[in-house]
Amino acid sequence: MYRQSPTGQLSFENFYLPFGGKLSGENRWIRLSELVPWETFESEYAEQFSQGQGAPANQGKLLLDATVAPADIRYPTDIKLLNEAREQTEIAIDALYKQVKEQLPKKPRTYRREARTAYLQIAKQRKPNRKKIRKALRQQLAYVRRNLAHIDSLIAAGAIQLLEVAIDPNVDGKSKLDHVSEMKCAPFVG
Fold it and tell me: How far apart are CA 148 and CA 122, in angstroms?
């Protein structure tokens, strides 16, 4: 059994702040909370319970906590994350170069094999020491920086389409590339 509360949703302006002060009415979260139809949510939630059976549900509260994060988020210093970024920049370079092939004499060099070998060398180690990790991070960052500079030069040469990569979560919670489609984007002006 569920009893709807006549008081409605608590306002964010009256929210207790442990460090003192008050939330501004111009805060983006407060403005967003005014757009949410809280009564609709509560009525749909109430439909999930029978009217005559069971003990009344305790007065529930919606808790929003920014400290809770999915476990698959990695640190920005993660070598695997840098390797994936490098691979994505290589895909972008391939797509952009196809558009300006006639204007440029050679395709920009990306050092794919060397970068992949350097990544695998550290990724396959059971417990690499800090010095090796820092060296590998520095190498992968250099490859990504080089690729980003190539992307800027290809866009300056007139390439205007990039690839959009759709990532769909699998049942096991890990994400894999599902399909690739073309997306038009504005040229970089900088």
Answer: 23
Q: Are residues 97 and 165 in the same domain?
A: yes
Structural domain range at position 64: 1-68
Per residue in 94-152, pLDDT (tens digit) is 988 988 988 888 999 999 999 999 999 999 998 999 999 999 999 999 999 999 999 98
Shared domain for 57 and 93, answered yes or no, is no
DSSP string, the chain: -----TT-PPPGGG---TTS----TT-HHHHHHHHS-HHHHHHHHHTTS-SSSSPPPP-------TT---TT---TT-HHHHHHHHHHHHHHHHHHHHHSTTT-SSPPP--HHHHHHHHHHHHTSSS--HHHHHHHHHHHHHHHHHHHHHHHHHHHTT--EEEEEEEEE-TTS-EEEEEEEEEE-PPP--
pLDDT digits (tens, 9 = 90+) for 73-89: 666 568 888 999 999 99
Is 74 contained in some domain?
no
Same-domain status, 84 and 135: yes
